[in-house]
Design a protein that fits this description.
This protein is mostly helical and about 50 residues long. Helix content is about 70%, strand content about 0%. Helix 1 runs antiparallel to helix 4.
Length: about 50
């Protein structure tokens, strides 16, 4: 659950607000593909997603 909170927090800092719930996190890769985020940030989020 800590990874999910980190993902939500990081995205919120970049102005991306996601709904609460596991389905949103399960579709994280698709969400990241739709947004223009710095490549390093996308890598960090993908690693958190894998850890989740």
């Amino acid at each position: 659950m800590a990874s999910v909170n980190r993902i939500h927090g990081i995205l919120f800092e970049f102005g991306i607000s996601l709904r609460v719930g596991m389905r949103v996190i399960e579709r994280l890769s698709a969400t990241l593909a739709e947004r223009m985020l710095p490549p390093r940030l996308a890598q960090v989020l993908e690693r958190l997603h894998i850890h989740f």
